[in-house]
Design goal:
By secondary structure, the protein is of the alpha/beta class. It is built from 18 helices and 24 strands. It is elongated and about 85 Å long. It starts with a strand and ends with a helix.
């Protein structure tokens, strides 16, 4: 049921829909990507799990100073309150502004000082530098964790060709991005260093967000802001951005809505990008906690099983040639194929996936369904795709030449598609890969760029994907009837087309360690759970009446 979104004031242009009610674990926010050109993300607490590290560093610095000051002037020592003081006075603000704001709440006024003040100097600059020293020590000691759901959402946004920026008050933004290995995700970066150089007012002023929009070449009304801090939400609102999304990981969304957020979520897994024609994404249910429901949905009907290969039948590995099917999984597929049709539909070249699986009784589709073969070995490539092979080959040669200086890149010519794998590229070189791929794609307008897990792909620029391939196969094999339940299992962005195609028609299972926005019905944790599920399915099918 679609409900009217809870808004402070309507978003200027960006449309979104809210499914479910507050507190509902299946509550979803669908954002129309056609209403946006860009999304601007705060860093700490939105993309990286550094907000806690910042908060603890602030507490350590302030408590150290407050304790020493109370002993020196004979006052009462009242420690920094993580629950109240951090969010109210410090979170999201430039470092020295945060110092001044908190101290003012305690009626403490210090000389401003500056960047060069030592950490033990009793100035705003000195105290801020002490906090920064503690923060850097913490991330160098313990590293930086990311919110996987946020990274997934950013990649989803990039797949819709939206521009992405990170907007942070921190002067340590570059170091945090490098430590997390995600610097390549952003098309623009506006941080505390940029703000100082360009004399931009910090949050809650909108200046840094407006500068990010300018660098991306987009109008604020065509951009969304994603923030977890009250000051950041206020900045997005003050800048008249098309949509302001508040991220309330502390469970107080009303504070963000009161500050100007158009909608508040607890995690970015609650967000999805969908045009008005698409169905709503939800959180897929854990398959093994809902097996009874799943078997009931199948009932006494026949089953056809579609399987992705990499990340589904085998774990993701650094090199494509190392993704070898285990003998246990091969035995599982053999047993399942004796009970129902089993089809492997992969982004790999068809001959490659046939060789890796090594079973003759299966049906194989390669290059995301552009190249298909049945048990008799009759090739059934998409009728229009054959002419693309020379274009793919030329693009592969161009990429091989232009990417030769970047160690770890693998360019894979798959006849009807090509892949650029960058899983083994060093973090400092990752950002060099995509611009080269974009340039080659621009030289070959017959191809379009797509993406996956640590891979960019160039495919024929035509209306064909895994979802359409699944529907074509069901029809071609006489399986497109109400008596057959198609089941699709996959882990990648490219599998979403199949999830969408089977919605309301069959069952789909996402392979993912963490919950995320998806149109799949159920979720399997990893390859081991895939094998376990297929074994359970084989047993269920074996027990059905003839």
């Amino acid at each position: 049921m679609t409900m009217k979104a809870e808004v402070q004031t309507p978003a200027a242009e960006a449309s979104f829909r809210l499914l479910g009610s507050a507190g509902d674990p299946g509550r979803r926010v669908a954002i129309d990507p056609e209403a946006l050109d860009a999304i601007l993300f705060d860093l700490d607490g939105v993309v990286t799990e550094t907000a806690k590290t910042h908060a603890l560093s602030w507490k350590a610095a302030f408590d150290e100073y407050l304790r020493e000051r109370a002993a020196r002037v004979g006052g009462i020592y009242e420690p920094f309150d993580l629950a109240q003081d951090y969010e109210r006075y410090v979170d999201g603000k430039p470092r020295y502004d945060g110092v001044a704001s908190f101290l003012q709440s305690r009626d403490i006024y210090l000389p401003p000082g500056g960047d060069g003040d030592p950490p033990d100097k009793e100035t705003i600059g000195g105290l801020g530098n002490r906090k920064n020293q503690l923060f850097l020590e913490a991330i160098r000691r313990g590293g930086v964790e990311i919110y996987r759901s946020s990274i997934d959402f950013i990649r989803q946004a990039k797949s819709h060709r939206l521009r992405i920026a990170v907007v942070s008050s921190s002067r340590n933004c570059s170091e945090v991005l490098k430590a997390a290995g995600i610097g390549d995700l952003f098309d623009a970066q506006v941080d505390g260093v940029v703000a100082k150089e360009w004399m931009l007012a910090g949050k809650p002023a909108p200046d840094t967000f407006l500068e990010a929009a300018r660098r991306l070449g987009v109008k604020p009304s065509r951009a969304a802001v994603v923030e977890d801090a009250i000051s950041g939400v206020q900045a997005g609102k003050a800048g008249d951005f098309g949509l302001v999304v508040g991220v309330s990981r502390s469970g107080q969304p009303e504070l963000l809505r009161e500050s100007g957020a158009d909608v508040a979520v607890s995690d970015l897994s609650e967000l999805s990008l969908e045009t008005s024609e698409q169905g709503m994404s939800t959180i897929a249910l854990p398959a093994f906690e809902n097996l009874d429901e799943l078997w009931t949905r199948i009932g006494k009907r026949r089953v056809a099983v579609f399987l992705d290969y990499d990340g589904t039948l085998t774990p993701i590995v650094e090199r494509p040639d190392l993704a070898v099917l285990s003998e246990d999984m091969r035995a599982t597929l053999t047993a399942l194929a004796a009970r129902c049709p089993v089809l492997v539909i992969s982004g790999r070249e068809r001959g490659d996936v046939e060789r890796l699986v090594g079973l003759k009784g299966l049906i194989y589709a390669g290059c995301h369904g552009f190249d298909i073969a049945g048990p008799e070995g009759a090739g059934l490539p998409h009728e229009k795709v054959v002419g693309y092979a020379p274009i793919i080959a030329q693009a592969a040669r161009d990429l091989d030449r232009q990417l030769a200086s970047i160690r770890g890149v693998i360019v894979e010519d798959k006849t009807y598609a090509l892949a650029v794998h960058f899983r083994m590229v060093s973090p400092e070189d990752v950002g060099r890969v995509e611009p080269i791929v974009d340039a080659v794609a621009a030289q070959h307008p017959a191809l379009r760029k797509t993406g996956g897990k640590k891979v960019f792909e160039l495919r024929p620029n035509m209306d064909w994907d895994k979802g359409k391939a699944v529907l074509w196969l069901l029809d071609a094999l006489g399986l497109d009837t109400a008596e057959v339940v198609p089941i699709y299992i996959g882990d990648d962005v490219t599998d979403r087309d199949a999830f969408d195609a089977l919605r309301g028609r069959g069952l789909s299972l996402l392979v993912a360690e963490e919950p995320q926005a998806t149109s799949a019905d159920y979720r399997l944790y990893d390859v081991a759970e895939v094998r376990r599920f297929l074994n359970e399915l084989t047993a269920v099918l074996g027990g059905k009446e003839a």
